[in-house]
Design brief:
Layout: H1 2-9, E1 13-20, E2 25-31, E3 42-46, E4 49-54, E5 57-62, E6 67-69, E7 75-77, E8 86-95, H2 107-110, E9 116-121, E10 132-133, E11 136-139, H3 149-152, E12 169-172, E13 176-180, H4 185-188, E14 189-193, H5 198-202, E15 212-216, E16 222-228, E17 231-235, E18 239-243, H6 256-275, E19 279-283, E20 289-306, E21 315-317, E22 330-338, H7 344-355, E23 360-363, H8 366-381, E24 389-390, E25 393-399, E26 404-409
Helix pairs in contact: 6-8
GO cellular component, one term: nucleus
GO biological process, one term: protein polyubiquitination
Protein name: E3 ubiquitin-protein ligase E3D
Amino acid sequence: MAELEMAAKTHGVGVFLELRKRLQSGLLIVGKDVARSPTDVVVSGGDSSLLVCTPRGELSLTLPAGVSFEPGSCVPTPAGESCGEELHFRLRVSVKPSTEEEASDNVMETLRAKETYCFHCQGCMTRLLEDRVFKRVLPLPNGNWNALVDDWCCHPDPFAKKLLPRAEDCLLGDTFLLLNRDSSCEHTLTVEEAPVDSEDVQDSKKSCRRVALVSCKSCSSVLGEAVAPETVKLYITQVVVERAVGDREPETSPNRSLFVEKTVAARLLGLSSSMSTFHFSVQTPDGKAFLLLWLLNSDSITASVPETCVGGDSSVDSPSLHSPSPAAATVLKLLYTSCSDTSIQQRDIVDSWEANAIGHAVVLPLKVCEELLEVIEDSNSTLPASMRRMRSYEVRRVLCYGQQMMTKAC
């Protein structure tokens, strides 16, 4: 059944382009419904553009500023098992160093002390808290630091006390913010206990800790948890944090899938850079692994054009993907596997990651985990058949810094 659903999602890729900025090289894939042989494909380019000429017509791909095709560098290359469906070409590009610093989509990197911020529900853009000026913006210890305490101490855990923010603090976790409640919370937030999982009730070894969920009073979206009477935990996928500028009205709510994709991608890139880790275990708040991610690179530039859209005079901005995307095309390239997959190969991968403690924990609400998996699978379906899987993993791209992310399944 799952295979039928995946087949329905995928579509014939007419032209697919992946460039690597660091390697200054690229792969061009043309479907055989668009061109039958390598001689049918002519590639040329100018400043920040690539022109692909096929029997179907010309396709102009707009590349990011500073990236340009090196004339005469496009050569056919073997397509392996996909030679019956795809034509593969290798090419070279030149990349000029950018002097402009890209704006970050990572709220963890943009929050600063002594700046004024407003917090909105991502679902309905209702203002959740009074404008805040933080005296301190501090990172919390690594997400799994509690598990390491036994290795550090020979006496009872001295860190058992919760780390909670003071009135004008903002504490940053890997995927959440810890903030003090204010008077407006009574009108904008609701708190209710989450039901206990029936499996946890039956498992006597597990402590049945009831979680107090915090939701938006306007749209009922779950935003996080009440970790103490005066402290709320807000997940970065559920809130929009902006600098307060005068009486400016909040913009309309951003596309949900795009927001989740960009937010998670930016956070993965931030964690990878700061901790030198490339394996991530996306988990629900109760510690159950939901999705395993392996970050391959963050310098890919991609464009994917369906076979039905190749031909005519239209110019396609890079990348044309499963959802509306910004003009820039830098993506994260990931391998992924779902922990709910019951196949033997997939279970072996999940068991190996768990047994060897592979993967930095990235904790998100269950609904967000499901949304992320859907975004990942949609992204995977836009790739050529030859690029959708690697061994037992699947590949996908993830939006990052206003750009995109590419993923493969395992």
